[in-house]
Amino acid sequence: MDKSFEDKGYFRRQYPRRAMKRKIGVLCDGSYFVCESGEIGEGGMSIISDYVLTEGHSLVVSFQVPAGEFVFLRAVVRSTQKKQGDERVTHGLSFNEIEFSIKRQIRSFVSARTDIAPGTT
User: Fold this and answer.
1) Which InterPro entries does the entry mention (predicted)?
2) Considering the entire predicted model, what is its pTM?
C-alpha cells in the first residue's frame, strides 16, 4: 500500500455498511441526546447530529437493529465531517467489543437484499 495514503488518513473499512435511517440515542461525557443514523456495519456506524463530537472520545449508542434487538454499544468517534451550509455534523463511529450475537444481527441486516422491483430505481 502506498505510504502517502496512510499519512493522509485514508483507510479501508473492514466490514461493508448499509444505509440505516433510525433514531439513535447517544451518551457522551454525561450528556444524552438523540440523533439520526446514516450507515451501519459490524465494525461501526455513522450518525448525523446537531452536535460536534471530538474525535477519539468514547460514547455509548443505543438503537434497535432492524429485525433485531435493542442494543447498547460502546463506540469511539473516528471522524467528524461538517459540510458547508449544513448545520448538522456526520460522525464516523467504531464499535468496541461488540457481542457476536449483535454482530450477527447487524451482518444479517447489511447483507439482506432490499425489496426493489426489477427495472425500477
Assistant:
1) PilZ_domain
2) 0.80
Please, are residues 37 and 49 in contact by the beta-carbon 8 Å criterion?
Answer: no
Q: Which CATH architecture has domain 36-111?
A: Beta Barrel (2.40)
Helix ranges, 2-78 (H) = 3-7
d(Cα 44, Cα 39) in Å, to the nearest integer?
A: 9
Chain segment 54-93, per-residue pLDDT in tens: 999 999 999 999 989 999 999 999 999 988 888 899 999 9
Q: How far apart are CA 119 and CA 102, in angstroms?
A: 34
Our separate counts of H helices and E strands in the chain read 2, 7
DSSP string across 19-34: E---EEEEEETTEEEE
Amino acid at 40: I
**Partners of residue 31 on adjacent β-strands:** 28
Domain ranges (residues) in the chain: 36-111
